[in-house]
């Protein structure tokens, strides 16, 4: 019964396999800088939206 | 990871199976039988789900109110072709999510965390939690608005939303959860029925496909319209949800074609039903946009009933209840997936609550928190509902960038990695969304601090 069940799944679908983390990717310095720039930009704009929201409440 | 291989080779020891594996295997056995016997329509039936739920879940309360408000203030014109264009954009993004989930069998949150580091994973989960909480409050408001038409109050809205969450979570099977929510999501078609009931001028609808008339008003109003309408079609929770749900459903690279059908069907239905809400709202145009002010009450459905008859108002109110209810279920699920994936514990509807405590607790907890907000006397519910989509639009570019990175990752995706054309479209979408969200956020802030005039 267990044989039949397991044949319907791919090996890397099993919980024992998906519990193992995938290898870390190596990001270039430029990619990291780009991601950080985007993150900082988005946080700043979000703070502006939240400030506007609070101001509209008053 | 990008190759397909059976879990067992002859002669090798069986890996240990969990309850989650068993449940998923039962679902997969039906897919394999359907494929073996060439039962095409049954196969499609088995494989649809994550795409339709992501798209129709995004036709939530704030979105449908946004579309109807657009119609009430500006009529048809620009938005009738703009909405399908946005859902075409959503299809490109969601197809990537589905493909990555089917090929890697892992959710978006855990892949970002494992591939690019805990910091980026937790940032993404943080974005998601914030936008989901705000949006969930708006969903409970939507249910409340719909119920107010039938003279029922906030308490009933809260009880209904939470009961649905608890009911769909009972059973410990992804398939069961998915089919219940899919059945509910099809009632998003009530907005199309509302559009038919207002007896629109068909010629006006057809002639509006040239994007005219363009909405007038101030630059800030235009930016708000763009940002909120974009936020009504693509949001961070859809990215988390569809990838994780595709993996939870047990999709594999063999299913990618049907996953595309699922996502396309969802996009088409969502666009049609969204236009339905727009057309229903446009019935209020000649009545000075009557009823929009009453969003925090029962203004909209009642205004529609006044203008187009009781049936239209009733159907629209029922549609708001459905839109809010389905979104509560899908958005809570996306929060649960993100929480389980980031903490690194079991995160599947195929696991029991005992084995996936964080997953189920996050699912219920975020809904409880949002429900509690609408019960607070004097809470700024209207402002929250109106700004929910805008915040999602502002935070969306980061999720999209990581999505494109994952979809291009040849180590993960192999031959299923993005083609160049998909990348060009994806980068254009990221640019467009980022520009609209940022422009509104910055312009509004500058207006509020009086650095620019309106």
Describe, in plain words, how this protein is organized in 3D:
The complex is a heterodimer of chains A (58) and B (454). Chain A is built from three helices and no strands. With 58 residues, chain A is an all-alpha fold. Chain A has one domain. Chain A is elongated, with a radius of gyration of 23 Å. With 454 residues, chain B is mostly helical. Chain B has one domain: Up-down Bundle (Amino acid/polyamine transporter I). In chain B, helix 3 packs across helix 16, helix 8 crosses helix 16 and helix 15 packs antiparallel against helix 16. The interface between A and B is large, with 39 and 55 residues.
Please tell me what the overall shape of chain B is: globular
Q: Which percent range describes the beta-strand content of chain A?
A: under 5%
Helix tally of chain A equals 3
How is the main sheet of chain A built? Answer: none
Relative helix content of chain B: over 70%
Count of helical stretches of chain B: 20
CATH architecture of chain B: Up-down Bundle
Low-pLDDT stretches of chain B are: 2-10, 293-297
Number of domains of chain B: 1
Please give the number of β-strands of chain A: 0
Distance between the termini of chain A: 65 Å
Q: Tell me the domain tally of chain A.
A: 1
The SS-based structural class of chain A is mainly alpha
- Sheet/helix structural class of chain B: mainly alpha
And the CATH topology of chain B? Answer: Amino acid/polyamine transporter I
CATH class of chain B: Mainly Alpha
What form of chain A results from the Cα inertia axes? elongated
